Each structure stands twice: as structure tokens, then as C-alpha cells.
Amino acid sequence: MRNIEVHDTAALQALVSDEFGQWSDDLTITQEMVNQFAALTGDRQWIHVDVERAKRESPFGGPIVHGFLLLSLMPSLRPPQDYQLSGYSSAANYGSDGLRFLSPVAVGQSVHSRQRVKRVEEHRRGVLLTSEVTIQQVDKDKPALVYDLQVLYAYTSS
């Protein structure tokens, strides 16, 4: 695994690519996971939690996964990388440069994710790295969501 120092701007810029990396391991999303998420967030819309009604009335033929549940699974779906960053004191979720929900995921389906480094910017406290992350069903070509994740790597004090 390559080690890249966050102060090495050229090496970080070399990570920027139009190509996505490897897929993460697959994760099957169960109705129990959806129900727990609904209980935790208060989002108990029938299309997610009422299995029988969703089978009868949903255009998807059954319950679908909350979009924000998919988003919250990003740490569990972290794809393998061929590099690690060093020389920073902290890595903070800086926010998002965009989030789109593009296709539903049926409960019981497996999903996986992959990502690419989209942009590297110098910041007064360190380096801001923007990665495009997609999560999609294992058997589908279209992503369920696309998220531009921004992480601020704060420089280590010298």
C-alpha cells in the first residue's frame, strides 16, 4: 500500500481520476435494518416499513430502503484503497459538495460502493479532499446514490 503525505500536493493531485476504484464488499439490507433506522430517525413512511402495504400499493412491489439509510452505510461500505494518507492530525467530515438519490433499492437487496478522488484543494488548515462515492445494488448498473464527500485533513503541527 502506498503511503502519501498530505503535504505532498503532487502525489495527492495524482489521485484525482475519472475512474472509480474497486467495489466494496457487498452488504444485504434487511427489513430489520430499515425498521431500526425508521425508529431511530422517526422516518416511518409506509413505503419503508409497512411490508404488506408496500407490496400492494408501492410502484416498486415492496418496501424500499431509506435514502439516508444508504448514505449512513458509507463507512460500512468503504471500498479498498491502494494508498493511505499520513502527516495529518485529524480528518474531519467537512460536508458535501452534492448528493443525489438516483434509483430506489428494494429491501432485501445487496449493495456495494466505490469511489474516486474528484478534487484536491489546499485549505488554510490542511488539505480538502473531495471524493465521489456511489452506492448501488449489486445487480444494477445505475447508482442508487451519488455523494461528493469532502474530508479536511488538518496538517500536523511541526
What is the gist of this entry?
The protein is α+β, with helices and mostly antiparallel strands and 158 residues long.
SSE layout and pairings?
Layout: E1 2-5, H1 9-13, E2 27-28, H2 31-41, H3 46-49, H4 51-57, H5 67-72, E3 83-86, E4 88-101, E5 110-123, E6 126-137, E7 145-155
Parallel strand pairs: 1-3
Antiparallel strand pairs: 2-5, 4-7, 5-6, 6-7
Features:
158 residues, alpha+beta, five-stranded antiparallel sheet, two-stranded parallel sheet, 5 helices, 7 strands, 39% strand, elongated
Radius of gyration: 18 Å
Residue share in helices? 10-25%
How are strands sequenced across the largest beta sheet?
A: 2-5-6-7-4
The number of distinct β-strands equals 7
Shape from CA axes? elongated
Distance between the termini: 26 Å
Q: What fraction of the residues are assigned to beta strands by DSSP?
A: 35-45%
- Indicate the structural class: alpha+beta
- What's the SSE pattern? EHEHHHHEEEEE
| Uncertain segments | none
| Sheet of most strands | 5 strands, antiparallel
Mean pLDDT score, rounded? 95
Number of helices: 5
Structure description:
The protein is of the alpha+beta class. It is built from 5 helices and 7 strands, in the order E-H-E-H-H-H-H-E-E-E-E-E. The chain has helices spanning 9-13, 31-41, 46-49, 51-57, 67-72; strands at 2-5, 27-28, 83-86, 88-101, 110-123, 126-137, 145-155. The strands form 2 sheets. It has a 5-stranded antiparallel sheet with strand order 2-5-6-7-4. A two-stranded parallel ribbon has the order 1-3. A hairpin with a 7-residue loop joins strand 6 (126-137) and strand 7 (145-155). The longest helix is centred in the first third of the chain and has 11 residues, at 31-41. The radius of gyration is 18 Å and the shape is elongated. It starts with a strand and ends with a strand.
